[in-house]
Amino acid sequence: MIDYPAHLDAMWQKAIAPREPDAPTVISTFAGGGGSLTGYMMAGYRDLLAVEWDDNAVATLRANYPELDIYHGDIAKITVEDVLQRTGLRPGELDILDGSPPCQGFSTAGKRIIDDPRNQLFREYVRLLRGLRPKVFVMENVSGMVKGKMKLVFVEILKELKASGYQVSARLLNAMYFHVPQSRERMIFIGVRDDLGIAPTHPKAESKPVTVREAWDSLSVDVTGLGLTPLYSEYWRNTRPGTTLGKLGATKKLDMNRAGYTIVKSEGNGGLYHPTECRMLALSEFKRIASYPDGYGFNGGRRDFQERIGNSVPPLFMEAIARHIRREILDRVEHGD
User: Fold this and answer.
1) Is 277 domain-assigned?
2) Which of 59, 183, 232, 238 is the most interior residue, by most CB within 10 Å?
3) How many helices (H) and strands (E) does the chain have?
4) Residue 70 in domain
5) What is the pLDDT of residues 70-98, one digit of tens each?
6) Does position 173 have pLDDT exceeding 90, yes or no?
7) 282 lies in some domain
């Protein structure tokens, strides 16, 4: 069993350390507050460019990575030529293009789903993919896309990615098996450019679930202003750890002896309440569950950081994916395997 706080801090030191001269390169689209980006940095990558439109997310990125080149704007307005000029790359040189484009419009049976106007962001990701021709791409999306009618979404996305000139593999992975104290299942697409002749693979589970107790070990918390209203206090008292809180939908009371539940952006408290104290979670507690280092700063208020964390890929989850790709794909390309 790892010492989770010590492991998280050690990974943060790797993230902020100078890059090695031969560090693999990544461009982060839909960068958000930096979850995926931090995972790549933990794995030793050099992030050449982050693309993000949200003001608060950009402020968070700049606070943590002051030297990072950030395109603050609509992804549809940055051209492939812009990206190549900013990064000094030529087509085919980039190691990884990363991104998690929203795909809400892939649901109408019997139509060319990819042309739904709501899929504009996915089309922009594909546009950059086809122009930049990275060796590998990584795309993350919700697990629900392989359930029910959403399977059409999955099939259409897979077809479009393969048509871009890549061998593509997609797997459901749960972050809690990659040192993250949060059960967060996501669909991870990994594509390898056809001419490289290497089949894409996914990392295998690396750890047992880290419990909330282990995640919060030695954590000092300021509980000022975190108390609940009388109604919510009653909900909390009548709820067993690990179960849904009152009539609050997906909102759950954590269990100290299990991994945390998925942090969401839409609930008033990120979908989670403290397991043993009648209160909301502090930012420091959210960060530990989401595998953000203690030293990672978030700009703005409570709603802002909950949205950033709820929308993000946990850094340690992406670190495992990035490390796997470096070892099993990029190193083989470099050595001509």
Assistant:
1) no
2) 232
3) 12, 9
4) yes
5) 999 999 999 999 999 999 999 999 999 99
6) yes
7) no
